[in-house]
């Protein structure tokens, strides 16, 4: 099977075009560093050919780790006999930015005899503003086919496919075959002025929005409002769907459990499946909303402005504005956030960002936070419903995790030995664009589904184990005397300083496999204890267990700081190339989380006494 590689500069619309050609759901966003690995899929109109989407890069002279990855892939692809075509995407609205890389690609492809097609993407933006790109003149000068198209609307895709079917073989002695980068840089500037559209209209439109979003006053206010609405929406938008999921699970349990003849099967279905796994599924709508809102900020172009706004305060902690994107991505999941840190040019700041990312309040923490906040914070509003106390509490615990991450990065940056190279902060501000809601909804759905399938396997395995240990040897008659109770009493002294009994100790212990397992474990334990009851929401079980306010707050603090994700540890060790650093972070964050939780418990008890 032949291969076609897709290359281009960041923000050129490369991943959106990849989705259109393959029908896959590659993540699309309007910020450098979103695509951090190679996407692969068959071209729908040409199933015998595989399309490979490489990470975006500004030049074949790499600076960041992500660019080094992209250039390494490209150099190997040129030597691969199965690669028979190169598609180079340029941003038609910002021609000069893309042309240096394009000329370098054409030069190297001429040397290796690989046909190239230049794809002038976002031609629809030029059409909407009455601007023109001299496609024929550019193609004649480049000695390479140039296809104007729109990855968003699909305009020009047929011409692209025709170019793949009838490639123009390059001249190995072409005009650029032996050109040095210095010459190509000047050529790119000249070609842009000669053939590119007049960009003053586009620049003026972007400048008007930037004058508001990057203003020293309105920019800061809008940033905090947007961040607050992000976390407030987790409760507000997801609440009706969460209630529907919980009601559906209760109805299914009431309908299914009585039909099972065997008592053990009935108890397992009610306690482990509906009580454990079902308690976790209730919180999936929040993960969908969280992923959708973050994608909305990325796709609109605002995320780069947020990074610029955050650069100055982040410098106080030894970080860079580019650290903001991986850190905010960590709100969804730490693993892609660690990959996204490749876009940070400075090795030193990249290392510090690695240390901050695990403290970002990821979606795996979200079910735990939601459960505890729902148990202790009233579902009331203020200012005519503008402020919800539960949403405000969620914003507070998210901010707390981020602040601790920044604090640790700042302390390390001032105390650790400086063994890493530092580089200046340079950030491209992409144009503002109307987000594509269909891809965003699809991405949020895929992310939620992936979370369920990935975490669901772990939760099912753990809840099954917890149910077996808690049900036997006395068939659930006395949970305290079960095998689980015996294990729980063994670990209870460790968590007694937090005001937690053995049941919560077991749930914390199992959550080191994955944070969200805490909810499933508690659901299984309380399900066994309440075997004679109908499906009861887990929040009601927590109220009935007598968990004190100080213990609930201590749990929130503990989960905000502790590093309880095996997958994150594995990726962190691989990306940082340091198992020692990963082990130190795991132990250090656990000790810090434990000490902080004990302090919060004691302080809360002193204040409410």
Automatic annotation (TrEMBL):
Give the superkingdom in one word.
Answer: Bacteria
Q: Which GO terms describe its cellular component?
A: plasma membrane
- UniProtKB keywords: Membrane, Transmembrane, Transmembrane helix
What are the TM regions of this chain, as residue ranges?
A: 212-231, 272-296, 316-339, 351-377, 389-412, 451-472, 547-573, 585-604
Q: CDD domains under this entry? A: FeoB (cd01879)
Q: Which GO terms describe its molecular function?
A: ferrous iron transmembrane transporter activity; GTP binding
The family database entries (PROSITE patterns) matched by this protein are listed as: G_FEOB (PS51711)
Q: Which InterPro entries match?
A: Fe2_transport_prot_B_C, FeoB_GTPase, G_FEOB_dom, Gate_dom, GTP-bd, P-loop_NTPase
Coiled-coil intervals in this record?
A: none
Q: Locate the FeoB-type G domain: which residues? A: 1-170
What is the name listed in the Swiss-Prot or TrEMBL entry for this protein? Ferrous iron transport protein B
Q: Which organism is it from?
A: Mangrovimicrobium sediminis
């Amino acid at each position: 099977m032949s291969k076609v590689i897709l290359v281009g500069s960041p923000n050129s619309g490369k991943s959106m075009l990849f989705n259109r050609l393959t029908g896959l759901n590659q993540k699309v966003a309007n910020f450098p560093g979103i695509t951090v690995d190679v996407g692969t899929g068959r071209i729908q109109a040409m199933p015998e050919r595989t399309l490979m989407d490489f990470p975006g890069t500004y030049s074949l002279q790499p600076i960041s780790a992500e660019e080094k990855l992209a250039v390494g892939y490209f150099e190997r692809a040129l030597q691969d006999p199965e690669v028979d075509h190169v598609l180079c995407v340029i941003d038609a609205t910002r021609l000069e930015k893309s042309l240096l890389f394009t000329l370098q690609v054409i030069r190297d492809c001429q040397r290796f005899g690989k046909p190239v097609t230049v794809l002038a993407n976002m031609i629809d933006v030029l059409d909407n503003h009455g601007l023109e790109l001299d496609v024929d003149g550019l193609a004649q000068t480049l000695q390479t086919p140039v296809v104007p198209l729109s990855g968003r609307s699909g305009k020009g895709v047929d011409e692209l496919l025709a170019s793949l079917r009838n490639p123009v073989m390059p001249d190995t002695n072409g005009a650029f075959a032996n050109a040095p980068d210095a010459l190509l840089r000047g050529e790119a500037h000249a070609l842009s002025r000669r053939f590119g559209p007049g960009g003053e209209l586009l620049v003026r439109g972007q400048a008007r929005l930037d004058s508001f979003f990057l203003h020293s006053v309105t920019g800061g206010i809008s940033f905090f409002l947007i961040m607050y609405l992000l976390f407030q929406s987790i409760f507000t938008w997801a609440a009706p769907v969460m209630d529907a999921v919980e009601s559906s699970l209760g109805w299914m349990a009431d309908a299914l459990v009585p039909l099972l003849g065997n008592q053990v099967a009935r108890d397992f279905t009610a306690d482990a499946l509906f009580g454990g796994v079902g308690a976790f599924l209730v919180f999936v709508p929040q993960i969908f909303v969280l992923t959708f809102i973050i994608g909305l900020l990325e796709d609109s172009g605002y995320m780069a402005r947020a990074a610029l706004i955050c650069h100055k305060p982040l410098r106080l902690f030894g970080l860079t504005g580019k650290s903001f994107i991986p850190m905010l991505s960590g709100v969804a999941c730490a693993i892609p956030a660690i990959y996204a840190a490749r876009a940070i040019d400075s090795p030193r700041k990249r290392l510090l960002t690695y240390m901050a990312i695990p403290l970002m309040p990821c979606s795996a923490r979200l079910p735990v936070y939601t459960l505890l906040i729902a148990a202790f914070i009233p579902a009331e509003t203020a200012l005519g419903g503008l402020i919800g106390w539960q949403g405000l509490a969620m914003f507070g615990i998210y901010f707390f995790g981020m602040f601790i991450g920044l604090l640790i990065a700042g302390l390390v940056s001032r105390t650790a030995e400086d063994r890493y190279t530092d580089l200046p902060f340079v950030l491209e501000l992409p144009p503002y664009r109307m987000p594509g809601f269909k891809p965003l909804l699809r991405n949020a759905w895929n992310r939620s589904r992936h979370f369920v399938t990935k975490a669901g396997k772990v939760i099912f395995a753990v809840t099954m184990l917890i149910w077996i240990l808690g049900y036997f040897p006395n068939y659930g008659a006395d949970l305290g005397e079960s095998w689980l109770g015996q294990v729980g009493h063994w670990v209870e002294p460790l968590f007694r300083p937090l005001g937690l009994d053995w049941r919560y100790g077991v749930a914390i212990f199992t959550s080191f496999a994955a944070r969200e397992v805490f909810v499933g474990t508690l659901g299984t334990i309380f399900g066994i204890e309440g075997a004679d009851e109908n499906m009861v929401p887990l929040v009601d079980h927590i109220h009935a267990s007598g968990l004190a306010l100080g213990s609930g707050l201590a749990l929130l603090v503990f989960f905000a700081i502790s590093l309880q994700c095996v997958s994150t540890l594995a990726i962190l060790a691989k990306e940082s190339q340091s198992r020692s650093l990963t082990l130190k972070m795991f132990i250090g964050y656990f000790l810090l989380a434990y000490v902080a939780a004990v302090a919060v418990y004691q302080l809360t008890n002193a204040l409410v006494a």
